[in-house]
Amino acid sequence: MTKILTSQEAVASIPDNTTVASVGVIGWVTPDAVLKALGDRFAQTGSPRNLTFYFPCGTGDAQLIKGMDHVAKEGLMKRIVAGSYINPVDPRTGRRPELMRLIRENRIEAYSWPIGASMHWLREVARKSPGYITRIGLGTYADPAFGGGKFTARAEDDLIRRIEIDGEPLLYYPTWPLDVAIVRASSADEHGNLSWEDEALVSSNIGLVLAAKASGGRVIAQVRRMVKSGQRLASQTSVPGYFIDDIVVEPQMMMASETPFDAAYFSGRRQPLDHLPRPPMSADKVIARRAALEVRKHELSIFGFGASADIPLVMAENGKFDNGAGHEYWFTTEHGSYGGVVMSGWQFSANINPEAIMDGLYQFDVIDGGLCRFAALAFAQFDASGAVNVSKFGAANPGAGGFIDIAHNAQRLVFTGTFTTGGLETSFNGGRLTIVQDGKISKFAEAAESITYRVVDGVRNRGQKARVVTERAVFDVIEKGLRLIEVAPGIDVRRDVLDRMAYQPAEIVSPLPLMDSVLFEDFGLEQAPREAANA
User: Fold this and answer.
1) Residue 238, Cβ neighbours under 10 Å: how many?
2) Distinct helix (H) and strand (E) counts, the chain
3) pLDDT on residue 527
């Protein structure tokens, strides 16, 4: 029988040495109150100890919705397996997440799995399969030959194995039981039936419930409100109450850190597009404008974090979606919101005015099945061998998120990011770019610190088309490496591009076209650059 408890009561009986699973997408659908109560219980009593935490995605933003950072306490957390991590500086405290400190200082066993594997693995737990098998991730940091997803020296167990079936190398993720699942939904009735009617995402909440129950475990559901039995249509109930043990009601739970509640994220209301935020003029906006020229109508397009997430916003700003034209562009993210406009910043992963919201596990079926034909993704490093890195660089350990699955399976790829990082300052005048101060670190490194995806292999072996867009230069990825195809007006090719790379492009187009000056003006982009209009 489902019980209604406080968050403190719900976590009071979680014992030592168990596995606790939860999910959120940054702030979206994060059961923050229950995770906080678990962290508070340990801080006050020293119990429970030595827990393994399983987060299919980076849960919480470590700011107003701390999520996984609530339980990032040495002694409480023995091991963490996560599809992604987050590492922002909290503007109120100037501190980075405590979880990142535990990882950097090797205080816990930390593993990073691609989100596609972390989602689909739940199905295998739920059906008591030996494990999850995939070819996605071979040759990347998830491959045991390149680290096996281990992010700390304490992470000694091989949670990912390399196997062979019919002569084909594959990655194998053995299953293990989940003792407690902490999920979040919109509402529950007195029988525990759950619905997500006013959430922006579902993510892997349903998969977590089924995996925990198949393991003989317990499910705690945090909801915004209780409703009477029979008040909702049966088709609106996504999880039967038979699978829910405890309900925690939190009426004030936020949707995202800068969004306490906004019905436009599940189309409970429609937001006028002229009310959308306008990205400020910056290097990132230039990149988003140039990358927007690669977007085609009637092609399912998926966007990643960073400058890539600004692409739909600059398209909206420039009137591309006016008069109902937005329906001509098919947008999604790795977390299952379809249609409308992809948002950036802490609102990333959810769309304004969506047309559909898909369960997270099915969304990775879409991705792995190659239905997202175009992808725009950020990059932290692009190396001489044609490998891209977003998973581990410097002091940051974000993991891959959905990057590997998306990059492996899309037909056309655009990687977006500034050319350098660490202090880059730019200015724009008269349709020209001026580099006021260059970044200390070039993103075009001889060897990536971590291999997230081997782009050249996709181009060479599977016919992918890939392009790298920065504020000062645009490259095509070819079998031999990079081909420089455009440069920004106002920069010196030798000084600002070639000398800032640890290696040289395999080819340089001659004569070398300029990126259109309109990209660098502080007003809406009216037409595509001639050189890129038919790309």
Assistant:
1) 17
2) 10, 33
3) 43
d(CA 452, CA 464) in angstroms, rounded, equals 16
What is the distance between the alpha carbons of residues 388 and 410, in angstroms, rounded to a whole number? 15
Classify the C-alpha dihedral 240-243-247-251 as positive or negative.
negative
Sequence-ordered strand ranges (E) for 66-167: 77-82, 109-112, 131-134, 161-165
Of 180 and 88, which is predicted with more confidence?
180
At residue 391, the pLDDT reads: 94
Question: Within 13 A of 70's CA, how many CA atoms are on the CB side?
Answer: 23
Q: Using the predicted structure, report yes or no on whether residue 530 has a pLDDT greater than 60.
A: no
**Can you tell me which residue has the tokens 């053995």?**
174
Please confirm, yes or no, whether 334 is among the known catalytic residues.
Answer: yes
* Cis-peptide into 312, omega within 30 deg: no
Task: In whole angstroms, give the CA distance from residue 390 to residue 400.
Answer: 6
Give the predicted TM-score (pTM) of the model: 0.95
- Torsion angle of C-alpha atoms 369, 374, 378, 384, degrees rounded to 10: 90
pLDDT tens per residue, range 211-243: 999 999 999 999 999 999 999 999 999 999 999
> Is the C-alpha dihedral spanning 408, 409, 412, 418 positive or negative?
negative
Q: Which of the residues 98, 124, 199, 334 is marked catalytic?
A: 334
- Helical segments of 198-282, H only: 205-214
Amino acid at residue number 435 = I
β-bridge mates for residue 481, sequence order: 478
Orientation of helix 360-368 relative to helix 205-214, angle to 10°: 110
Residue pointed to by tokens 């503007």: 91
pLDDT tens sequence across 315-347: 999 999 999 999 999 999 999 999 999 999 889
Query: Does residue 526 have a pLDDT over 50?
Result: no
For the chain, give the percent of residues with pLDDT over 70: 98
The DSSP H or E segment spanning 104 is helix 98-104
Q: What is the largest CA-CA distance in the chain?
A: 73
Handedness of CA 354, 356, 360, 362 (dihedral sign): negative
Angle subtended at Cα 210 by Cα 209 and Cα 215, rounded to the nearest 5 degrees: 100
Half-sphere exposure of 363 (CA within 13 A, CB side): 28
Please state the separation of Cα 87 from the chain's center in Å. Answer: 13
- Give CA–CA dist 372/370, Å, rounded: 5
d(CA 289, CA 192): 47
Q: pLDDT by residue (tens digit) across 90-131?
A: 888 888 899 999 999 999 999 999 999 999 999 999 999 999
For the stretch 260-295, pLDDT in tens is 999 999 999 999 988 899 999 999 999 999 999 999
- Domain 3-249 matching CATH 3.40.30.10: the answer reads no
Pinpoint the residues of the chain covered by CATH 3.40.1080.10.
3-249, 273-520
Q: Superfamily assignment of 273-520 in CATH?
A: Glutaconate Coenzyme A-transferase (3.40.1080.10)
Q: Give the C-alpha separation, 378 to 284, whole Å.
A: 11
> CA-CA distance, 308 to 305, in Å (whole number)?
6
- For the sheet with 381-382, list strands across it: 381-382, 387-389, 453-454
